[in-house]
């Protein structure tokens, strides 16, 4: 069963649309979770309680991160949980992670409609057609599983 690894893991984490894989496996059922802003609707279909405002969302040992850069935040948080705050801060310094973005459009709640539209177009153009078709198929199968089994 796909959830077996999650049941025995210390942590089950995802970054960006990796949450859709966890959702398709049934791991996020009824849990709060986050993913890339453009895929929040798919996350809901998978049975998760989407949290679009959260950069990192923890529910027990299951932790999801928003877009790819949030993965750095997740990695540092996880390092703090595993090795302690001092080690995590040392790691942060080693990688010189001190973001100061030149623009304030890094979250969908801050971006203009025009910026959101351009971002969606950019994402559609950069994703191969076979991958664009894959996500709805996985979501559809998960929805059918939810209806059939309630899981």
Relevant terms:
151 residues; mainly alpha; two-stranded parallel ribbon; 5 strands
Overall shape: it is flat
* Major sheet details: 3 strands, mixed
**Contiguous runs where pLDDT drops below 50 for at least 5 residues:** none
Task: Report the sheet-strand fraction.
Answer: 5-15%
Radius of gyration: 17 Å
Overall number of structural domains: 1
Order of helices and strands: HEHEHEEEHHHH
- End-to-end Cα distance, whole Å, is 13 Å
Secondary structure category: mainly alpha
Number of helices: 7
CATH superfamily: Class I glutamine amidotransferase (GATase) domain
**Strand tally, please?**
5
List the helices and strands and how they pair.
Blueprint: H1 4-8, E1 12-15, H2 18-24, E2 32-33, H3 40-45, E3 49-50, E4 56-59, E5 62-65, H4 70-83, H5 85-94, H6 113-126, H7 129-149
Parallel strand pairs: 1-5, 2-3
Antiparallel strand pairs: 4-5
Helix pairs in contact: 4-5
Structure commentary:
A hairpin with a 2-residue loop joins strand 4 and strand 5. This protein has helices at 4-8, 18-24, 40-45, 70-83, 85-94, 113-126, 129-149, and strands at residues 12-15, 32-33, 49-50, 56-59, 62-65. The strands form 2 sheets. The chain has a 3-stranded mixed β-sheet with strand order 1-5-4, with helices on both faces. A two-stranded parallel sheet has the order 2-3. Helix 4 packs antiparallel against helix 5 (85-94). Helices cover 51% and strands 11% of the residues. The chain is built from 7 helices and 5 strands; from the N terminus they run αβαβαβββαααα. The chain has one domain (11-130): 3-Layer(aba) Sandwich (Rossmann fold), CATH 3.40.50.880. It is flat, with a radius of gyration of 17 Å. The chain is mainly alpha-helical.
